[in-house]
């Protein structure tokens, strides 16, 4: 026997160790004014109890209530207490003397997660009042008591009456009931099964109006077709008390409602009958019995008041039980149309109601939609019910698969809006092209011929008919542009897929715009994310904004501008608005340099100050790259102004002035030369020495006075020996013709001296011939022989008009003065044009004598 006792003893010890190992211990701290109670489920865990530690002693029982707001260790002598015990958290809310507060649940959603939890809020107001529960949007939905809520959070509202506890109903979230008012005092219960995270709604509690019935509910019916059920208190057992129940329904405009009693169990009335009172708006009201036809196809807000009769509550006698349904639907006739997109490749449509307060109902293939989307390549039937055109917004999207850059023709079609179905009642508000590339390449966007692109910035926004929003398909915006005749951007190159969205500025329907908005082509991949080709305007400044302006550029992205400057102009670049980031890695950089790579390059980083205006004398590039920002953003707005090149203009002016000055100098020199030649005496002129007269120049020299006014041609005597004595040969005979000619020039005629003079024999005419060439043998006589007498005879020269010399003296030979070239007869000479017109007058005793010609000595 002793051998049997020992194994039993060992088994008891192991059983006790197993029980101790199965104990579950938690620490509980109740909130202020909150009671926590652990209670067993009916028929579960007869051998499991809950214990509370209080110093050296420990008390265990089938239930435990904690009321003090202090930490308490609670121990369960079973491993799975959640299967045996429920946890109830109770809170008293008294609204009879003070303002009520919002019903709040402990913020720790994992508290008592292993137990089934029941939250009870006991509400109390003044006698004869109702407590009011306001539910957050979207409200509550009433269900049958046997049902459960989808989120496993079920609210139960009960009220305490003289006849006992009355169940107002069970409710779930996401319904149409916005407010419930309950008689006098009651309770709100929230049940959450174990293992479910707590996610309660904050219910606002307040004191309501004076009691008019056991319960009153406010219901907001939604738009469109909708149906909702309601139940009377104590729906399963029946309601016996003679009280009123009221429901207030708010119906949207242009909606009809219909009330249907789906399940009705009449009570056994001792007094009075059950009646249904309806009030439509503020004026119309009527009463019907529950068994009669209820209102149908009515419009406007309404209320239903159900009044119970005096029912005796005894066994096997039913009380009032009613389940009714309210259905709302739209009134009017919808607009129907069909959209066929099977012939337009890549085109899809989206229609959205932008006025959430309107009563528009849209359907796609008879299915109501908040937003209609017609996929590409499909056909759809659309329905619009009470939808004002101004509340609808139609957008279209076209996907274009771009050709490969290696293709022969890498130019895509122009971006134009295709013709849409004219049956659509909505104007086109927005159109988007999605350009998808097949390989690593670049999209080149160019404006239509005859125009340029202009970027919209705060200082110069787009005022054209439409605007173009260009973005990368990842969502990063390049900028907003418009096609303008006075634009500056000739091309935009973007690496990767591109989205172009056109929106109207001052037009209502984009479908009326038929012309191309952009041309595009495909080129090899570029190193930057974006490259702009820009030609500034001479008429005014232009602005360059970084991509995604005024927000910052994407991290580690770059953009470049190629600016072409016209000849005879220079560009002034000013950074008017700069936002610098704090870089986490790398640096931001702004660099400027000429396109020919021969000039100086300037660059700045985010930790450096940007200089003032930068002047470029020729076409240049502007490059900006972003770092990996740690904070802030990198965004730059630049301004470019063109100015006339002053140096070149001045050089042109100086060249023109110099050329004119040179011409003036040449003209002055020519005039001076001409005048000098006119005033310069002839090199062939000879002077005649006249001892008693004035020297007179031959040729064109004129006398100071005319011949009629002076006596310069009248001589008193001519002393030939004095003039020619050293030249005349002493052997020359005296019978020499004393001519009045010298050096071939006519020196005028002589008149006899009429005044007193010495006794000189009078000169007689002589027919002696002058010999101009005196030769002895071979000897040459260069000089004339002197005359025989100093009283030279009067020359036999014909007397002609004054001022005319008709003969030359041929007696002289070539002399030291080289006056005559050769010997010859006396030749006539014409000294001037005026004198040549004069006819010589001969003496009466002489025959006609020709005028000797004048020979110029060489």
UniProtKB/TrEMBL annotation:
<dbReference type="InterPro" id="IPR056269">
    <property type="entry name" value="CUB_CDCP1_2nd_5th"/>
</dbReference>
<feature type="signal peptide">
    <location>
        <begin position="1"/>
        <end position="23"/>
    </location>
</feature>
<dbReference type="InterPro" id="IPR038811">
    <property type="entry name" value="CDCP1"/>
</dbReference>
<dbReference type="Pfam" id="PF23668">
    <property type="entry name" value="CUB_CDCP1_2"/>
</dbReference>
<dbReference type="InterPro" id="IPR056268">
    <property type="entry name" value="CUB_CDCP1_1st"/>
</dbReference>
<dbReference type="InterPro" id="IPR056266">
    <property type="entry name" value="CDCP1_CUB_3rd_6th"/>
</dbReference>
<feature type="domain" description="CDCP1 second and fifth CUB">
    <location>
        <begin position="429"/>
        <end position="506"/>
    </location>
</feature>
<keyword id="KW-0732">Signal</keyword>
<feature type="region of interest" description="Disordered">
    <location>
        <begin position="831"/>
        <end position="858"/>
    </location>
</feature>
<feature type="region of interest" description="Disordered">
    <location>
        <begin position="589"/>
        <end position="608"/>
    </location>
</feature>
<dbReference type="Pfam" id="PF23665">
    <property type="entry name" value="CDCP1_CUB_6"/>
</dbReference>
<feature type="compositionally biased region" description="Acidic residues">
    <location>
        <begin position="844"/>
        <end position="858"/>
    </location>
</feature>
<feature type="domain" description="CDCP1 third and sixth CUB">
    <location>
        <begin position="221"/>
        <end position="315"/>
    </location>
</feature>
<dbReference type="Pfam" id="PF23667">
    <property type="entry name" value="CUB_CDCP1_1"/>
</dbReference>
<keyword id="KW-0812">Transmembrane</keyword>
<feature type="domain" description="CDCP1 first CUB">
    <location>
        <begin position="25"/>
        <end position="95"/>
    </location>
</feature>
<feature type="domain" description="CDCP1 third and sixth CUB">
    <location>
        <begin position="528"/>
        <end position="640"/>
    </location>
</feature>
<feature type="domain" description="CDCP1 second and fifth CUB">
    <location>
        <begin position="103"/>
        <end position="207"/>
    </location>
</feature>
<feature type="compositionally biased region" description="Polar residues">
    <location>
        <begin position="597"/>
        <end position="608"/>
    </location>
</feature>
<feature type="transmembrane region" description="Helical">
    <location>
        <begin position="649"/>
        <end position="674"/>
    </location>
</feature>
<protein>
    <submittedName>
        <fullName>CUB domain-containing protein 1</fullName>
    </submittedName>
</protein>
<keyword id="KW-0472">Membrane</keyword>
<keyword id="KW-1133">Transmembrane helix</keyword>
